[in-house]
UniProtKB/TrEMBL annotation:
Organism field: Phenylobacterium parvum
Domain of life: Bacteria
InterPro entries the UniProt entry points to: PhnD
NCBIfam families reported in the protein's UniProt record: 3A0109s03R (TIGR01098)
Keyword field: Signal
Protein's recorded name: Phosphate/phosphite/phosphonate ABC transporter substrate-binding protein
GO BP term (any one): transmembrane transport
Family listed: Belongs to the phosphate/phosphite/phosphonate binding protein family.
Keyword set includes Signal: yes
UniProt GO cellular component terms: ATP-binding cassette (ABC) transporter complex
Signal peptide: 1-19
């Protein structure tokens, strides 16, 4: 065997070995299947019980196979859409914004309140009877155990940083003895059992937990009290992959926007199904739905840059904020 032929064979063998070592691309849904992602801020079993009837109705109405994809954190759901492991999903505002930015996502609908006006509030909760006040929490003497939400949680992280901690130049990691990150249910149970002094949460999550009507859930809700409430946050977006087949988009959109609408017995049944997932009938939306969270994000960045005395970061954040406000003004003028 010639040296040239031997080197070619060795190179080919090395190439095959390296290829075998490369991680395989994540598998997407098979043809005719839509994978629907759901972030569970409570336990997965409760989420499955609430979502299964809705997904079954979606499957029947669209003629598609609907596979649920439950996530325990928003990063996992954002990455799943980026790698085309999922097609459509219910996101929070900040995680939905990341899905649009990084995963080729597009907002097509939004949730509504089953009762009362739209919107919800970020909260900070403490154990009832603890005597712990907001002023005590903001004292930052590193004696309290605190928990925030997922890094991409609008109510669990972005809202308290934008409206509470940031304006006071407070960094949670230097304010508290410990800072944990967990979902809303885990945080609420930890506070109710005295394992945490305080934690972020939101009004929707507490309402969902109260609706479970299990003794443990009822006790947990009864054992906490709210010491801080944010301004109203917009309802959650529904996001699909922008590159989805238009025919699939049409089927999904028709189902989502007609579900629970009307005065028929079937529509009433559907609204009861939706109540279990804490929404009323969906409304059409687009990426402009995310303008308020973009404004919060830019505001938080501007506050942080000013606190750090970083002129370059401040200028960048100010430019982002100006851009968002210009888009809001243009949208208002168009609507008016």
């Amino acid at each position: 065997m010639t040296p040239v032929r031997l080197s070619l064979l060795l190179a080919a063998g090395l190439g095959l070995a390296l290829a075998a070592c490369q991680p395989k691309a994540p598998a997407g849904p098979p043809p005719g299947t839509v994978r629907f992602s759901i972030m569970s801020t409570e336990n997965i079993q409760a989420a499955q019980g609430a979502w299964t009837p809705f997904l079954a109705d979606m499957e029947k109405a669209t003629g598609l196979k609907i596979e649920p994809y439950y996530g325990t954190n928003y990063i996992a759901l954002i990455e799943a859409m980026r790698f085309k492991q999922t097609d459509v999903g219910w996101f929070t505002n900040q995680s939905g914004l990341e899905a649009v930015r990084r995963s080729g996502g597009e907002v097509f609908a939004r949730t509504t309140k089953p009762d009362g006006p739209d919107g919800y509030q970020a909260l900070i909760v403490v154990k009832k009877g603890s005597g712990l006040t907001l002023d005590r929490i903001l004292a930052c003497d590193r004696t309290l155990d605190f928990a925030m939400g997922d890094a991409k949680s609008t109510s669990g992280t972005l809202a308290p940083m934008t409206w509470l901690f940031g304006p006071r130049n407070i960094r949670p990691e230097t304010c508290f003895k410990t800072v944990r990150s967990a979902n809303h249910e885990a945080n609420l149970f930890a506070v109710s059992m005295g394992q945490l002094d305080a934690a972020t949460n939101n009004s929707q999550s507490i309402a969902r937990l109260a609706d479970q009507k299990t003794p443990a859930a009822q006790k947990a809700v009864a054992d906490i009290e709210v010491v801080w409430r944010s301004p109203t946050l917009p309802e959650d977006p529904m996001v699909w992959r922008k590159d989805l087949d238009p025919a699939l988009k049409a089927r999904i959109r028709d189902f989502v926007l007609s579900y629970g609408v009307g005065d028929t017995d079937e529509a009433k049944r559907q609204r009861e199904v939706m109540r279990a997932i804490q929404t009323g009938p969906f409304k059409p939306a687009d990426d402009s739905h995310l303008l308020p969270v973009r404004e919060m994000e830019a505001t938080a960045a501007l506050i942080e840059a000013r606190n750090r005395k970083d002129p370059a970061a401040e200028a960048k954040a100010k430019a982002s904020l100006d851009q968002v406000q210009a888009e809001q003004k243009a949208l208002a003028a168009k609507a008016g």
